[in-house]
Amino acid sequence: MHILGALTSIRAIMQTRTSQGAIAWALSLNTCPYLAVPAYWVLGESKFDGYHVLRHSQISDLPFASQTHDRLVKEDLLYRPTTDQQESQAKLLHNLARLPLTTGNDASLLVNGEATFEAIFRGIATAKDYVLVQFYILRDDDLGKRLIACLKERVEAGVRVYVLYDELGSKELKPPFLEKLRQEGIEIYPFNTRQGRGHRFRLNFRNHRKIVVVDGRLGYVGGHNVGVEYLGQDPVLSPWRDTHVEVTGPVVLGFQVSFIEDWDWAAGQILDVNWDPQRSETGNKVAIGIPTGPADQLETGTLMFLDMINSARHRIWIVSPYFVPDDDLISALQLAALRGVDVRILIPENPDHKLVYLSAFSYLEEAEKANVKIFRYKPGFLHQKVMLVDDSRATVGTANFDNRSMRLNFEITLLVHDSEFAAEVEAMLEKDFAESRPVASTDYTNQSFCFRLAVRCARLLAPAQ
Hints:
The chain is an alpha/beta fold. Helices cover 42% and strands 20% of the residues. It has a 16-stranded mixed beta sheet that branches. Helix 1 (2-15) packs antiparallel against helix 2 and helix 13 (354-361) crosses helix 18 (449-460). The chain is globular.
């Protein structure tokens, strides 16, 4: 076992992202190989091999990469920057997402579960050709049954229905339930991170995306999963605070590209779907969908957040249930605050993961020194993933402000560049801040030694959270 530990430590040194992580793995693998070797093969991988090759060898041949671009140009749906700064920003977003920044979009906020699922069910009911559905958590409870009933109604009308779920997030789903759906005409697959040769123990990756696409013209993305707790029916965490967004326009095809990539990995099939971009009938917002994940060549999730923080001029508000940033992100937040930007972080008072909750305390002193303001939402569990930059940019998506979302999860974020939408997000968040309390460093320093030790130990485990 010690020989295996030594050999594994060589792999860890060569492949671990940071020097601190490489040192930690090398020491533990050589001193405690009986514990560290299994832990490394489950938790140590940072790149999602296989999927990356599939995406660039097959997805690049999709119509979206050729004909759709021509249609976007013809219909004047490609964003045209008018300043050097706008051009630089558009180029960055295009290179991160590998998708175009488009105009002719509209986006409507969906606040909390009832509004979100009413809109999703209403949208699915309009499907004529196909529905793409993807959730990290899919439960066979009252809400799950309502979703399935809605999808079955469309199948009976001749509509194709494709469903993806994460096998760990949705671990309670039973094989008979899944087989019944398949018999009823719903094509459903787990994302299955462990498929492929040599990937049996690849358990540390998650597909955390929540996407619904109807006929390539209507899309939904945000923080909600399919479970009654998202309707506020969890006795411990309720009321549940979350945000989704309903989108029309060519940006919906960006959500669709993300789903097609995931479906190709899970089912080994490129779906025949609509790639004809359609201008929204209700708005002309500039928007882009940004898929991020461990199969990307770069750490696109981290780079996206860093760009938002570094480009903020007078405000950046970040809302996330989990606040476990790395050193680069903390430094970026401090620099923004030091140049006079109103930096606010909103996290829940009532947590659903104790380790993440403890980790957040370790950042209070660093934040306070630079005037980064941290708030805790009091009424119930806060699960939304929203960001507001200045008065013109806002994001709604699935990515949390933690290492897992930056590096280990497949995520999707909608960025809208529009002052009207930003004002709606501002009004929504102002209400959330009004129900929150400011957090001071004394919330940590005045605690007992045992609590502070638990906080520091939790932060040491941040790369795995």
